[in-house]
Design goal:
About 20% of the residues are buried. The protein is globular. About 25% of the residues lie in helices and about 30% in strands. The longest helix has 12 residues, at about 100-110. The chain has 4 helices and 5 strands; from the N terminus they run αααβββαββ. By secondary structure, it is an alpha/beta fold. Strand 1 and strand 2 (about 70-80) form a beta hairpin. Its main location: cytoplasm. It is found in: Cytoplasm. Catalyzes a salvage reaction resulting in the formation of AMP, that is energically less costly than de novo synthesis. GO terms for molecular function: adenine phosphoribosyltransferase activity.
């Protein structure tokens, strides 16, 4: 372990909680948004709430179906992942049609959280995904045109 990991008790807390998920991490390709969400949560002192494709999370979950540019999909979130009144930042790698980010917002709001902002690494503005965010601010690093 590096000196940084030894000095930061949050890293130990994250590692001990992740180990309760069977077979984590799973081999193969993982959700790209997971590359950005946990370090951002750690940096701002917030908790990280995973939103996953169906049957990836253990325990009881909320489900939210949504449309994609090429079909439909579903996201799930643990029922007790957030408490009413908590503020949330939705982080993902890409916003295209806005379906995934909008579904994430809906899950969090159904649980009583207040989504205050969304952040994505890449936006494809021509697909008008920002329009599905109900006026919530969207922070983007790169626009792909």
């Amino acid at each position: 372990m590096s000196a940084c990991k030894d000095q930061d008790p949050r890293i130990h807390a994250i590692q001990s909680r992740i180990r309760v998920v069977p077979n984590f991490p799973k081999p193969g390709i993982e959700a790209r948004g997971f590359i950005f969400g946990p370090p951002i949560a750690l940096a701002i002192g917030a908790k990280f709430v995973p939103l996953r494709k169906p049957n990836k999370l253990p325990g009881k979950v909320f489900k939210q179906e949504y449309d994609l540019e090429y079909g439909s999909d579903c996201l799930e979130m643990h029922i007790e992942a957030v408490e009413a009144g908590e503020r949330a930042l939705v982080v993902d790698d890409l916003i295209a049609t806005g379906g995934t980010v909008s579904a994430a917002m809906n899950l969090l709001e159904r649980a009583g959280a207040e989504v205050v902002e969304c952040a994505c690494v890449i936006e494809i503005p021509e697909l008008k995904g920002k329009e599905k965010l109900n006026g919530k601010p969207l922070y983007v690093l790169v626009e792909y045109r």
